[in-house]
Here is the input.
Amino acid sequence: MTQAVDHFADRLRAAPQSRLQRGAAAEALALARELARWAQRVEEPGSEPREMPDAGMFAAADQILVAAHDLELVLRSDGEVTEAVKLVEEARRRAGV
Here is the structure.
């Protein structure tokens, strides 16, 4: 999972501002929020997950890295890791980076 997330983050950092504004940053933030919610549901079952704030388009790469790292710490099976990697790869394709 680390490799997929690092690749997406690197592509976001290298993307021009215009591409980030056209939706790549929003896609990355949506992914970061999804990964963060997943980690919170595992760590705090029964609690309402908190939403990751929008820290701006230039922070989107860092947000997916943080959320993915947190999720990696709580995943319990290879199947869950595979599912998380699919989410990252789908978001990267949608972001166009």
